[in-house]
Amino acid sequence: MDSMKRRLSSAPRASSIDHGADADLAKMGYKSELPRNLSMLSVLGMSFAIMAVPFGLSTTLYITLTDGQSVTILWGWVLISLISLSIAASLAEICAVYPTAGGVYYWSAMMSTREWAPIASWICGWLNLVGNWTVTLSINFSGGQLVLSAISLWREDFAPTPWQTVLMFWAVMLVCFLINAFGSRYLDLINKICIYWTASSVVIIMIVLLSMAPKNGGFRTGEFVFAHYDASASGWPAGWAFFVGLLQAAYTLTGYGLVASMCEEVQNPAREVPRAIVLSVAAAGVTGVIYLIPILFVLPDVDFLLAAASGQPIGLLFKTVTGSSAGGFGLLFLILGILLFAGTGALTASSRCTYAFARDGAIPGGKLFGSTNAKLGIPLWGLVLSTLVDCALGLIYFGSTAAFNSFTGVATICLSCGYGLPILVSVLRKRKMVQHSTYSLGKFGFAINIVCLCWIALAIVLFCMPVSLPVTASSMNYASVVFAGFASLSMIWYFVHGRKNFTGPPVPKDINNVVEGEAVNGMGEGAAAGYDGKGMGKEV
Question: What pTM was computed for the model?
Fold first, then answer.
């Protein structure tokens, strides 16, 4: 009851209002509390920023250099881009029906029966929340590492201490927090600039590398770029190493679903957000190919790159190809600019996800973290919690030098599972709830959904694996440990609080009772007719 009062409580609105979208949101059980001042281009920019293709591929380059080199880098990227496009299309199909900040958490409940809606939304909500937190963590942690790696351009033997790495990570988190807290009115502009900065950076890096390579080592052959495969450094069987190396591409292409949490800040979200989700993945896939091929053509000695004291070989690659520390830093600066957009966008989405989940009482302190700050026009306490959780998780680095691999693994696993659950529920219910979606996958929908689910099942296993063998305590991939830790916290809180108090988001009447062929304002009829104003659906 209290959670529903918070849902329907009034709040000052700062700017743009879309009465149609607000009415649709009210039918889903929520009062619009955030200004709708983001455009489709802005949301596409945010999704593009969170994926941050050149940044993500650069900071995880050591993975694919170990697990297969060219074939894993290039063709692994193409494979995961196609799979990610399938998942994005599946999510866009659902988002067009239920455009709310709850995202996959809300969709899981709405797609389920009344009986299973609370537990489905609880599980999916926690997966999505942890995924949001850890993808923000991995972006900003690797960003801190990349900043410190710039020092090694002049001092190649420089190896930052754990304290230096963690402090730099905290500094990056602080900058992203301040931009989100006090620059929220400029997020639309920031997200649009990100598109142009990223595209320009890829073009500049490509031109500089290809023009300067003949003077500093020359080019690799086409056979090396498109067909070379060497997984000897991994310790894994040759075929399996390719799949372990897919973490690079899968981690980079995970952020597209996070922008669903921005639905309540976009005008006409049922149309614009699904478009942004799909277009951002398509753009990211093309950008990755354009970025990777020149990198492979000018790739220096792989053992030399893997021996980088900083653990981040991209700066050393730039320095070697350009022939100077200043040239290497100039290109690295472009990547660091992308980091700023990525970290800011990921923390924005993370704070909205925290806010949406907390307002339904699914996390401790829901009354506080599920509130909005009227003056700033943002869910301030959701932003604070997201930042503090990430800063605390960064301390894992003191116990494991492979902590970044753990962060990327758990982020990819949680977000993939979070994306997969509403798709699974849709398949189990014969896709009835999305049959009238404005972004319907049509007759190919079932096959596309099954491919997505098969990949997600494989990814859960793959990304708990260490990059290479043998494994020590410090090089172990602790993704499964972090995942189990949050799963335990979720389970304990469910039995302490959720089992008796959590009803999930407003739930429609059972799909079996919905009159087929009818829809209300782009939503399933149950979404509108099933809402009774008491925090859950009623049968009609």
Answer: 0.85
